[in-house]
Each structure stands twice: as C-alpha cells, then as structure tokens.
Specification:
By secondary structure, this protein is of the alpha/beta class. It has a single domain, classed as Leucine-rich repeat, LRR (right-handed beta-alpha superhelix). It has nine helices and ten strands. The longest helix is centred in the C-terminal third of the chain and has 15 residues. It starts with 8 loop residues before the first strand and ends with a strand. About 7% of the residues have low confidence. This is F-box domain-containing protein.
Length: 227
C-alpha cells in the first residue's frame, strides 16, 4: 500500500489478505496520499473497508466510489474520512452503494450522518446513491429550500450539484412527491448550480415523468433518464 503514495488514482477490492503484514506494528497509523484525486473501493468485508478508510488521508480527492453491495455500509466512516482534513477534500463526485435488496433503510442509513457529510461537500457536482442510502428522508434532505428560506438563513446542502443518480426499490405517493420536489427545486435552483441531468430507478419512475413540474423541467432542457 505504501508503494502507491505517488499515484493519483486507485481501484481497490479490499480483502482480508490486503492487510496481512508480518509485523502489524509496522503498519502506519495514516497513509498520506497528497496527489490522490480518485479512489474506487469495493468490498464485502466491513472491518477491512473501514480500516482502509481510517488509514488513508487524501486531501486532494475529487472522486470517491465506495461500494459494499452485500453488506450495510456505515456512513459515519465516510464522514470521518472527510472530516479529518481541514479543509475537506475538494470532492466533485461521490458514489455510495450498500446492501441490497432494500431492507430497513430508514433505520440504517444514518440521516444525520449523511446530512453532516453533505454539509462538508459544498463543491460536489455528481451524487450517486443506491439502496439503502435512498429513502423519503434523504430525498427530503436533498430538496433545495425555497428562496425565502435561504434568505432567512437556511443554507442548502450540496448547492453545486449538476447530476443526481439514484436507485431504490420501494415507492409511495410521498416518495414520488419528494422526487418531483427534488428535481424541480434543483433544476430551478436560486443561489446554487442548476441541475442538468437526473438518472433514477424506482417503481414509480414512469409516473414521475408525467408530473407537470417534472415535464416542464424536461421541456426546458433537463435530461431525465431511467437507470
């Protein structure tokens, strides 16, 4: 792992043997990768993946793709990873994938943790969330506050977003309403970057396409696709 300190990108499939060392005391507390701009990490071993995030320090990171498709991913480790540098890395693209199928998401996603994480990523331009990181609370969290709310001091999360990719398995009238509000608020953003492209995958997607405000955004140039 120390041999990659001069690299700019890495694609890692974390495995228990990845951390085997004949002398565990020789493993450093932190591996500084000042030139790293892109990291893709895929693992089904939670302790190993979390250990890797604890070890790495990437102050120049611009893209993170973190997936644990067969296990739940604790977003608090992601928050800690971005909280350590001051200022946080200038991330532009974030992708999070957790356990599927969609089970117990409301209890397990850690809404407050994700809110705190998003508050650190003001320059984020692309967000890719897959189950279990998408539910009604996350959609509500990503809706931009109205102009009067911003004027009264309510700061928007992720004001620079241009592209949102989301996939989840459950749906309801509330979910569809929030998805519509998210799309409309981001595309007609005031005091932030206007959304350019949305990719969604959920059972009510085709009904969402027929909602008047969504159709108006598409007519004005928004790219709306089904994953």
């Amino acid at each position: 792992m120390l041999s990659i300190t001069s690299a700019k990108t890495a694609h890692v499939m974390a495995h228990p043997l990845f951390f085997f060392h004949p002398n565990p005391l020789a493993i450093p507390r932190r591996v500084h990768l000042p030139r790293f701009t892109s990291l893709s990490l895929l693992s089904n071993n939670r302790p190993i993946a979390m250990r890797l995030l604890t070890l790495l320090a990437c102050p120049s990171l611009r893209s993170l793709d973190f997936g644990m498709p067969k296990m739940g991913l604790d977003p608090s480790f992601i928050l800690d990873f971005f909280s350590r540098p001051n200022p946080p890395p200038p991330l532009r693209s974030l992708s999070l994938t957790g356990q599927e199928p969609f089970v117990g998401a409301v209890q397990d996603t850690g809404h407050d943790t994700l809110r705190n994480l998003f508050s650190l990523l003001g320059g984020l331009e692309k967000l890719d969330l897959r189950a279990p990181f998408v539910d009604s609370e996350i959609l509500r969290l990503l809706v931009l506050p109205r102009e009067e709310a911003q004027e009264s001091g309510q700061h928007p999360l992720l004001p620079s977003l241009k592209e949102i990719n989301m996939a989840w398995h459950g749906t309801s009238e509330l979910i569809e309403q929030l998805a519509e509000e998210l799309v409309f608020s981001r595309y007609t953003a005031i005091g932030g970057t206007n959304l350019e492209e949305v990719l969604l995958s959920f059972p009510g997607f085709f009904r969402l396409q027929e909602r008047e405000r969504v159709k108006a955004c598409v007519d004005r140039g928004l790219v709306l696709n089904y994953l």
